[in-house]
Amino acid sequence: MKIFSGNSNRSLANKICENIGIPLGNCAVTAFPDGESFVKINENVRGEDVFLVQSSCPPTNHHLMELFIMMDAFRRASASRITAVMPFYGYARQDRKDQPRVPITAKLVANLLVASGASRVLTLDLHAQQIQGFFDIPVDHLYASPVTFEYLKKKNIPDLVVVSPDVGGLKMANAYANMLGADLAIVAKRRKSATEVEADAIIGKIDGKNALIVDDLTETAGTVVQAAEILKNGGAKSVIACISHALLNDLGIERLQKSCLDELITTDTIPRPAIEGVHITTLSVAGLLAEAIKRIHNNSSVNSLFEFKGGRTS
Predict the structure, then answer these.
(1) Do the domains at 2-143+287-312 and 145-283 have one common CATH topology?
(2) Could you report how far apart the first and last alpha carbons of the chain are, in Å?
(3) Contact, 84 vs 36, CB < 8 A?
(4) What is the CA 300 to chain-centroid distance, rounded?
(5) Neighbours of 77 (CB within 10 A)
(6) What is the CATH number that goes with domain 145-283?
(7) DSSP 136
C-alpha cells in the first residue's frame, strides 16, 4: 500500500500516513509557466495498492485536474488499484437538473474520475447521497459524525436541541439528535440566490435551549448565519454550528464575524487558515480516513465505520 497526495490538502495526507505508520509517497506535482499541471511519480508503484488523497477545494478545477492527471500517471505506471480519497467531493451541489439547460456536473466529475483510472472512491459527507449511484465503481461514503460526537460529548451541553437549517438536512440532524439524546428542530428557509437565503420560521421548541445547527457544507455562510439569528431571536440561549466542510470565502468569513454564532465546529477536510473574530474548532478526520484506508487495503468490512452507538450515523 502507498499513499500519495496532490497539493489540495497535504497536511491531512500527512496525518493519515502518521495514523497508518507509513511515509507519504514521493511525487512531484508542479505547474508549467502556462498553468498546465505536471506530475511525476518518484518511486515505483508497479503492482501497488495506491491511495491518492485530494480534496476538490478551491481552486476546485485546478485540484480536480491534478487528481485526474495523477491517477493517469499511476495507471500508466501499472499500479494494481487506484483509490481516489476525496475528503471533500466538489460539484456535489450540481447533482440534478433543477433548471432548464443546466448540466449535472456531479455526474460528469464521477465519469472523469473513472476515465482517469479510479478503481474506487473514498469520500466523506457527500452533499447528496445519491451521488454514490453516479459511479459504476465501489464508493465508500463515510460520515464525520463519530468524530464530532466525541467532541460534543466532552462539552456535555445541557438542554440541547439539534437544528436542521433546512428540510434537506433533516436526516443528518435526526442522526445527531439520536446520538446525543437531544430534541430536534427545523428552520424553514427560502433561497433567494446562490449567496442569499431567507429564514422564515422554526419548527420545534428552542426557547431556553442550547441549539446545535448541523449541516454538511457552507461557503457563504448565509444559511447558518440566518438560522443562528432566527434561533437567538426565538429564545435560544446559545447557538453552535457543526459543519463538515467549511469552504469559507470572503463573504462567508465576513458574515460569520458579524453573526451571533457562538462556535463553529468543522473538520480538516479542507485546509483553512485561522479567522479572526470567529470561534472555530477544527477536528481532524485523519484517523477515520486512515482506518478506512487500512480496511480497504486488507479487503475488510468498512461497515462498522458507518455505525455508532448501535445505530447508523446517517
Answers:
(1) yes
(2) 30
(3) no
(4) 23
(5) 14
(6) 3.40.50.2020
(7) S
With CA atoms as reference, report the closest residue to 17 among 290, 268, 312: 290
Q: Decide: 13 and 36 in contact? Cβ < 8 Å.
A: no
Q: Are 96 and 104 in contact (CB under 8 A)?
A: yes
Q: Is the pTM for the entire model greater than 0.70?
A: yes
Query: How many Cα atoms occupy the beta-carbon half-sphere of 243 within 13 Å?
Result: 22
Return the CATH number of 2-143+287-312, one of 3.40.50.2020, 2.40.160.40, 1.10.3720.10, 3.30.300.130.
3.40.50.2020
Whether residue 189 lies in the annotated active site: yes
Length of the chain: 314
> 238 near 211, Cβ under 8 Å?
yes
CA distances from 73 to 45, 68, 117, 269 (A): 10, 9, 9, 24
- Kindly state the cell numbers that stand for 170: 433533516
> Which residues, including other chains, have CB under 8 Å from residue 170's CB and lie 6 or more apart?
164, 186
Give domain limits for the chain. Answer: 2-143+287-312, 145-283
HSE-CB at 189 with a 13 A cutoff on CA atoms is 28
The three cell numbers locating residue 216: 454538511
Among residues 2, 15, 189, 209, which one is catalytic? 189
pLDDT tens, residue order, the chain (314 aa):
999 999 999 999 999 999 999 999 999 999 999 999 999 999 999 999 999 999 999 999 999 999 999 999 999 999 999 999 999 999 999 999 989 999 999 999 999 999 999 999 999 999 988 999 999 999 999 999 889 988 998 998 999 999 998 877 888 899 899 888 999 999 876 666 655 656 567 888 999 999 999 999 999 998 899 889 989 988 999 999 999 999 999 999 999 999 999 999 999 999 988 888 889 999 999 999 999 999 999 999 887 776 544 334 44
